């Protein structure tokens, strides 16, 4: 997994009584330095393989059990249209959306907002200001937009939310587009492993 680092920071157990079902714990994770490079030359459309990630397995995967896939600033979901340049096959039920709201304030997934990738659009919108990031043409920096949370339906119908913290290796406090290494994601995510449960706490 190269330099990727994943930290389990908390577990929340759903309450259950003697006659209630037993739920798996909600998982709250930090992922650092997930490298998502593109092989294209500057000024050319992105190309190269996507890095596939599983929320449940807490790691990069190579099979069809991926939930999200990264390449440069593009994020795919494992559901919808299979195709596009170098995109992995989508075999799952996945989808997603970007919502305005601080990470901690997003208490559940809204099924009515979930979209899948299509031939012309991505569930996590592309381009500066449209999805999770802004691009500054003067500094050439890519910066996560504060107060935006990514919500996902996983390949097998569970739910997760994500907060992207940095696009640069080791999450420098003041990144420099000319000296900081880009295409390294650091993000928090909360994974709800229980079938049919949309809440994150």
* SS-derived structural category: mainly beta
Strand content: 35-45%
Sequence of secondary-structure elements: EEEEEEEEEEEE
Shape: globular
Radius of gyration, in angstroms, nearest whole number: 17 Å
Average pLDDT confidence is: 91
Question: Uncertain segments of ≥5 residues (pLDDT<50)?
Answer: 10-15
Number of helices: 0
Q: Summarize the amount of helix as a percent range.
A: under 10%
Number of strands: 12
Span from first to last CA?
29 Å
Quaternary: single chain
Which strands sit side by side, in order, in the main sheet? 1-2-12-11-10-7
Written description of the protein model:
It is a single chain. 0% of the residues lie in helices and 36% in strands. By secondary structure, it is mainly β. The chain has one domain. Strand 3 and strand 4 form a beta hairpin.
Give a short synopsis of this structure:
With 201 residues, this protein is mostly beta strands. It has strands at residues 5-12, 26-35, 51-54, 59-61, 68-71, 74-77, 95-100, 133-135, 142-144, 148-153, 159-168, 182-192. The chain has one domain.
């Amino acid at each position: 997994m190269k330099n990727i680092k994943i930290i389990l920071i908390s577990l929340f157990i759903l309450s259950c009584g003697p006659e209630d079902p037993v739920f798996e714990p909600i998982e709250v994770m930090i992922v650092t330095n997930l490298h998502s490079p593109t092989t294209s030359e500057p000024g050319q459309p992105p190309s190269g393989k996507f890095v596939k990630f599983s929320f449940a397995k807490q790691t990069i995967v190579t099979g069809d059990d991926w939930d999200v896939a990264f390449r440069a600033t593009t994020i795919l979901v494992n559901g919808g249209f299979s195709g596009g340049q170098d995109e992995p096959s989508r075999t799952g039920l996945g989808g997603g959306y970007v919502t305005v709201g601080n990470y901690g304030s997003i208490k559940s997934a809204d099924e009515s907002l979930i979209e899948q990738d299509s031939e012309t659009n991505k569930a996590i919108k592309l381009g500066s200001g449209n999805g999770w990031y802004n691009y500054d043409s003067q500094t050439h920096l890519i910066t996560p937009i504060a107060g935006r949370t990514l919500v996902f339906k996983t390949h097998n119908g569970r739910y997760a939310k994500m907060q992207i913290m940095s696009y640069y290796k080791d999450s420098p406090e003041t990144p420099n587009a000319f000296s900081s290494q880009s295409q390294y994601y650091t993000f928090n995510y909360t994974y709800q492993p229980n079938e049919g449960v949309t809440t994150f706490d």
